[in-house]
Amino acid sequence: MRDVAVIGVGMTKWGELWEKSLRDIFVETALMAFDDASIDKVDSMYVGSMSSGLFVGQEHIASLLADYLGQANIPSTRVESACASGGLALRLGYLEVASGRSEVVLVGGIEKMTDVSGYEATYALGTAADQEYEGYHGMTFPGLYALIARAHMEKYGTTREQLAMVAVKNHHNGSKNPLAQFPFEITVDSVLNSVMVADPLRVLDCSPITDGAAAVILCPAEMAQKKDKPVVKIAGSGHATDTIALSSRKDITWLEAVYKATQQAYKEADKGPEDIDIIEVHDCFTIAEICVLEALGIVEKGKGGDAVEQGLTSLKGKIPVNTSGGLKAKGHPVGATGVAQAVEICKQLWEEAGERQVKKARVGLAQNMGGSGGSSVIHVLERA
Amino acid sequence: MRDVAVIGVGMTKWGELWEKSLRDIFVETALMAFDDASIDKVDSMYVGSMSSGLFVGQEHIASLLADYLGQANIPSTRVESACASGGLALRLGYLEVASGRSEVVLVGGIEKMTDVSGYEATYALGTAADQEYEGYHGMTFPGLYALIARAHMEKYGTTREQLAMVAVKNHHNGSKNPLAQFPFEITVDSVLNSVMVADPLRVLDCSPITDGAAAVILCPAEMAQKKDKPVVKIAGSGHATDTIALSSRKDITWLEAVYKATQQAYKEADKGPEDIDIIEVHDCFTIAEICVLEALGIVEKGKGGDAVEQGLTSLKGKIPVNTSGGLKAKGHPVGATGVAQAVEICKQLWEEAGERQVKKARVGLAQNMGGSGGSSVIHVLERA
Questions:
Q1: For the complex shown, is ipTM > 0.95?
Q2: What domains appear along chain B, each with residue ranges and CATH number?
């Protein structure tokens, strides 16, 4: 297996993009990545999308998007693992280049979520849960994560304010990201007084519904050395699953898929939590960021809330988390999120992150997650 | 890249399985493959499914199915390329074992299509076409393939009777396959007098709507030598795309994605059309089988209809095609079809095909296709 590098990234402004279709958004984003990498064709592509079928009535999008990108005839593969679809696409693209089967591969993620009603979007997102059990009983994702939050508060003493601080931190970072859907600051008070969604989670604890795409171009690390950017390698990759239903887990505050995938990625990268400078985590709800920090081994079990309160994960903290604004402020077009996490890590490692640049960052970790933790994909990226 | 073998297969009776859910069908099928391979766990799995979102309101099925199969925590990946989803899952599983990343991998395909109305199923299948152009103008797949059929008849003199002979041949083979949805013979007259769907295609030119799954277990060829079955290797794999819309193609009678994917697979296997003993092709409509034979290089352009009429592809012909009954008689649960093609080739190469056994078959080819040829995945399998 040979070393693989990222040589270009693309991301456009995220939000409610009613004037653009799925294919428009994807092609615009992919062409930005082509420009950034100074290429005009790829050998193969992978696309992460959770539910283009339910959101826009279009499947077979790997072929569609290769075609509209002017790359018809190349192998093009769509993968789906709910909200971890983008990270999974990145993993498969990485494995394809690492194994020597392709030289230059496009990895994209896309979701066009605002062409349907809020009810339909909630239904589509709910198909990531166990529909015959959780869905049948009326559970949607805010409810599932609310159960996790209640259990975490009960078991570890995590406070309502600590949950709010996750959102406040991510909006602070997002206010420095011009591509974010909601690039503005919020306060703990505004979170605590926002509309209740599923007790204890309020609307400002929840990531939004978003249209958007993200793209990266991968190639052998040797080829990347000829480019004018610092070489950023994918040092490790991990992928694991867990029971899809929360009710099947021994401890709903613990994300076993995240833990297992992280251990794989650390091992492959020959790194541990102490080596990581920056992290993008899957903060679909504020409680998710807290649980993920624990599963990554950044803090001990139960200490995720304290870490946020003490500033460990803030932009000027020891390990900045979600410098992009995270899913909360940047937006969460579900299939695109995992790829966008890698885009942010690359921008940071290339020192192209503008006002939110973290100094001397050399190693970054991207943590992408499906459902209530039923799947997770982890990548460790390193500046050579 | 190391050699990869199939060490077990699973397939249950296909049809309208109203008493079973998607997860029931998949788990039953996968456990058959586990038994056939004498294993009880795998390192990783790939699942092909076209639209579990639109058909049963469930995405995130790679995690769901790993969980219900008792394999929670393993990496599990769903891929989608419309009706080529199963073939694509097989390709990714093959690449994972070939690259040395995993030892034992489950590849499954599944579609549960009969829980929705015929209208909804036609809509879901239609999402494999270009929805903004073809779908918007009311095109569904029978219409698209009818255009191809008309063009082929006009350009090459292919006859209405030759189309019917494809269905007659495949039902003859299917009558010897107890797992087929429609295991009975039909006649040219019955095809010609069946209900018109989209001129010139009648209902007996069309593959049915089906519930079903198929599974194979892959491992390094070296490990397969310790089993009691003859070693069947995946000798070559190919994957290509084409424009998703028919209107973007220079010649709608020519399947460029099939041609390109086949050339890759032949090259990797160091084989040509003259080396192939048996073939499973994607006969979603009778005209498709005729066009595919041409793109595979089995016959010259325009000669697909004559080949069928002259018996070249019949069970006792020079190159038997669709010994399983094909999509037409066996059924077409879209995400499962590509995997089921590999199941049939393995059964033939292992000499486990019962009444439809082809003598001395050593090399088989499986051709899976998405949409109106917007994607295709080819595998060449060889008995060592």
A1: yes
A2: 4-117+210-224 (3.40.47.10), 136-207+235-383 (3.40.47.10)
